[in-house]
């Protein structure tokens, strides 16, 4: 597997497994969806409670013709969610080989 500089990533493929991981981490940190949404406001731009729900349960929001396909989510949205939970993006995406080189 090749490591990828996180600065070069714009979007991630998103699926049920990642949705389950997001829900697990959110609950482990003691956040409701609403509380996490409120916390993301502190990062400068809120992620709505309904969008967090959509990320956690993508199968409920994909149209019938798209079920089974992965969706995409922006790095900026995932970064805001992870910052709000005080975790690194690599904690959410453990199988990805991502790194952020020192400045």
Automatic annotation (TrEMBL):
Organism: Nostoc flagelliforme CCNUN1
Record's protein name: Transcriptional regulator, containings XRE-family HTH domain
GO terms of molecular function: DNA binding
Keywords assigned: Plasmid
Keyword Ribosomal protein attributed: no
InterPro entries the UniProt entry points to: Cro/C1-type_HTH, Lambda_DNA-bd_dom_sf
